[in-house]
Amino acid sequence: MKAIRKTVVAATGVALALSLAACGGGDSGDTSDGSAAGKSAAEKNDGADKALKAADPVTALKAAAAKGARQNTYRAKGKLKDERGDSVTEGAFQVKPHASEMKETGPKTAEAPDGVTRVIAVGDKMYFDSPMVPGKKWWAFGVGGAKDTDPSEPFVRMASALSTAKDLKNAGVETVGGRRVAHYQGTVVVSELAGYKGDAMKENDRDFTAKGWKGDGLEKVTLDVWVDGDGVIAKTQEAGKRSKGDYLKADEYSDFGADLKIQPPPAAETATEKEAMEAQMKKAK
């Protein structure tokens, strides 16, 4: 969820940046058993790899971003490394109607004593799994609905941003999530991205991405995007150095178009926003 995810970060300070640092695998090796069928399969795989190796990076990334923008549902898994420590994240997302279900496992905090943060968003409501109100497992928070001017999903923005990199290259063919993929890599200078005027990236996506990286203290980002033979983005990774320490955010994507069945938590287990705020005020006294 685009607008909802931005609101929760601003309202609570809980950065649920979904990511996965999958290694991307290596060559799958020769699976031929020497039979005619085995040779045919090997030849087919070799042909697919050759096509991935030969793909033009800018063309492939633009097409992948356009295809990604048409996806309405997906899952993401990964990890985030920043000044808070290491976090493992996973989530399910639906663009329209807006819904998401997210989980982050990381350092223990007052808000997440066990280090686990769960958030569900459905429509204009966001639900936090937090011991804020005694006797209630969740509390609700009202948020605005997404607008047409909201930024695209992360994998769309990353593919678009990478296509603007001056040193963009096809780094070879790997395996991610069981899929053979082309690995595209480059360095994005944040100040240059902020001033980008080309057609590879929408203006609101450019502004949101550059502002986010700048806010994270990043001047340049090593960006990697993995795209399969069908033009589907399998994985993205952002990495950079800043005064607070190294930053790494990687996401692996799957289940595009799946019926995610995201539902709000039971009403009997959910405190209202007013109840949550009153409980917080009492706690602060």
Summarize the structure.
The protein has 285 residues and is an alpha+beta fold.
Net shape: globular
In total, how many beta strands? 12
Q: Compute the CA-based radius of gyration.
A: 21 Å
Helix content: 25-40%
In order across it, which strands form the biggest sheet? 7-8-9-10-11-1-2-3-4-5-6-12
Task: Supply database-style keywords.
285 residues, alpha+beta, 12-stranded mixed beta sheet, globular, disordered N terminus
Describe this structure in words.
- This protein is of the alpha+beta class and 285 residues long.
- The protein has helices at residues 2-12, 36-54, 57-69, 154-162, 190-194, 203-215, 273-284; strands at 73-82, 85-94, 99-105, 116-122, 125-129, 138-142, 169-176, 179-189, 220-228, 233-242, 245-254, 270-271.
- The chain has a twelve-stranded mixed sheet with strand order 7-8-9-10-11-1-2-3-4-5-6-12.
- Helix 3 packs antiparallel against helix 4.
Q: Mind sketching the topology for me?
A:
Elements lengths: L1 H11 L23 H19 L2 H13 L3 E10 L2 E10 L4 E7 L10 E7 L2 E5 L8 E5 L11 H9 L6 E8 L2 E11 H5 L8 H13 L4 E9 L4 E10 L2 E10 L15 E2 L1 H12 L1
Parallel strand pairs: 6-12
Antiparallel strand pairs: 1-2, 1-11, 2-3, 3-4, 4-5, 5-6, 7-8, 8-9, 9-10, 10-11
Helix pairs in contact: 3-4
